[in-house]
Amino acid sequence: MVERDGLLIGTDGRARCWWPGEAPDYVAYHDREWGRPVTEDRRLFEKLCLEGFQSGLSWLTILRKREGFRAAFAGFDPHVVARFGEADVARLVADPGIVRHRGKIESTINNARRMLDLIEREGSLAAYVWRFEPARTVRGGRGEIVATTPESVALSKDLKKRDWSFVGPTTVYAFMQAMGLVNDHMEGCFCHAEAEAERAALAPPTGAAQ
């Protein structure tokens, strides 16, 4: 790969954001998932949980364990995870397929319960989080990418008021970037225009859980 103006030019000739480097699985994640708008509750819940697990680690570490996480947490079905008890915590702490951090495991179970509460009040997780979509969504150059925004601070604060955990402003902004609430693909990255078109075509999420 060749770097040019903060972009990496791949062997396929395409210009990409610099951060996935050359790891094939990371490049595939960048190309096909990151920044594409998501309105499915289970995918949104999964990502919030995995961003919490990522705290202090690299996303690539979590990405490579994602299937293990999905198997361990029943595909991130909040109705199932909300019923996990101490025996499940003990099982998960011993599971080499995930990050075995008791606090983050217990947080995921807690957040599943809080998600069910949120759905009862708001209709869906999608309708709730997309209310925090900022008006300005394009960052531009490599040096302009930020770790938090006023919207991520507001969403983090509101989630904490609802007793969610491991949802600090940085974690929440990474979630917003990945789920397409903002388009932080760099200008010049081939995904930038594609993500923007998908965002423009997106119908606002309704209150019905998807």
What do you see in this structure?
The protein is mostly helical and 210 residues long. The protein has a domain at 39-181: Hypothetical protein, domain 2 (Endonuclease III, domain 1, Orthogonal Bundle), CATH 1.10.340.30. Helices cover 51% and strands 4% of the residues. The chain has eleven helices and three strands; from the N terminus they run E-E-E-H-H-H-H-H-H-H-H-H-H-H. The protein has helices at residues 24-32, 41-54, 59-64, 66-72, 78-81, 86-93, 102-122, 125-129, 150-161, 169-178, 190-201; strands at residues 2-4, 7-9, 15-17. The chain has a three-stranded antiparallel β-sheet with strand order 1-2-3, with no helix packed on it. Helix 2 (41-54) packs antiparallel against helix 7 (102-122), helix 2 crosses helix 10 and helix 9 crosses helix 10. The N and C termini lie far apart (39 Å). The model has no long low-confidence stretch (mean pLDDT 92). It is an enzyme of class 3 (hydrolase).
